[in-house]
Amino acid sequence: MTSRQFASDNHAPILPEVISHLTQTNTAHAPAYADDPTTELAKQTILNFLGRAANSTDQVHFVPTGTAANTLCLATLSDPWDAVICHEFSHLYTDECAAPEHLAHIKLLPTSGSDAKINLEHAHTHLQRAHGIHATQSKIISITLPTELGTLYSIPELETIRQLADAHSLLVHLDGARFFNAIAALEIEPPALIKILQPDAISLGGTKAGALATEAAVFLDFGRHNYLNHNPLKPEYLRKQAGHLISKSRYLAAQWLGLLENKAALRAAHHANHMAGLLESQLTNHNITILRPRQANAVFIELWPDEAQALFDQGWLFYDFLEPRQYRLMTSWDTEQSDIDRFITDLKTATKHRLGG
Fold first, then answer.
1. How far apart are CA 38 and CA 103, in angstroms?
2. Where do the Aromatic amino acid beta-eliminating lyase/threonine aldolase domain residues begin and end (predicted)?
3. Backbone angles phi, psi at 290, to 5 degrees
4. What string of H, E and C letters represents the secondary structure of the chain?
């Protein structure tokens, strides 16, 4: 089996900067259950990265998985009679085994939209259907950036989502499992993006950025609905109740110091995005159909099943994705040009009967 793959950035190893901070943290005893100096420093480092004031009422809570982060964010923002507008391809709706509904006791309202981006006209349909006490109340709109199809909401699209949320008193959740890839591709500083979208909660992804296992549920207080001011301990109780308050929490936090130190995660994201661009270019040169706009570190291509199987037989790992003959190739922080060259060589062999040499 080839050592580096195009299946997922989850397959990649840990960034050296993250290992360094884990090692530094592993030298002494420290208080447990997120009551330690490393956790506090990591929280402030994240808020500073997002351009938030040090004395704000914002909150950051570390959990080990993206599903935990998404569920904690939505449960904190909502009541059991509330609903979340999301895309039908969103991770929330397709890949979390109903965790938001089971643990947060909320209803997910899927919408369609090209390239896995919410069509706001369809979102309006959900908003118009609510009829008092007889229906779930649309409380949150959740977007993913980059989307599950590797695409990006443009700045004007983010502004429009903010306008929709303001018009209907919706809270905004941002699933940022690959947030670093998004800001690298959009060429925007995190504080500027936060100012535009004003998300009330962010599932900030660390694992796909190069960490071992850490995600941050970030709650930003823009003074709307007083959802945190009413019960500021709500996310802490929910995290504990769901079994995600890690006793040695400092090891989740330390990974963020490695990710954000000297912009390590952002540099890694720039590299992954760049490698995806090179991969896309070589695929295009070989007449492989690119099915989606390549905007971050994912390339979606069309292959026949026997062609994909031939590549699997050569030891390559990648996923079929959502639709027949659609396959996702994903680059990582450690992808090299030689990986792309080897894949293209094997791809030429696998598709020779259809596309020629």
1. 29
2. 5-302
3. -90, 120
4. CCCCCCCCHHHCCCCHHHHHHHHHHCCCCCCCCCCCHHHHHHHHHHHHHCCCCCCCCCEEEEECCHHHHHHHHHHHHCCCCEEEEEECCCHHHHCCCCHHHHHHCCEEEEECCHHHCCCHHHHHHHHHHCCHHHCCEEEEEEEECCCCCCCCCCHHHHHHHHHHHHHHCCEEEEEECCHHHHHHHHCCCHHHHHHHHCCCEEEEECCCCCCCCCEEEEECCCCCCCHHHHCCCHHHHHHHHCCCCCCCCHHHHHHHHHHHHHHHHHHHHHHHHHHHHHHHHHHHHCCCCECCCCCCCEEEEECCHHHHHHHHHCCCCCEECCCCCEEEEECCCCCCHHHHHHHHHHHHHHCHHHHCC
Q: Are 72 and 234 in contact (CB under 8 A)?
A: no
- All structural domains of the chain: 15-263 (3.40.640.10), 264-351 (3.90.1150.10)
Give dist(CA 63, CA 67) in Å, integer.
Answer: 9
The CA-to-CA distance between both ends of the chain, in Å, stands at 24
Cα–Cα nearest to 116, from 340, 331, 326: 326
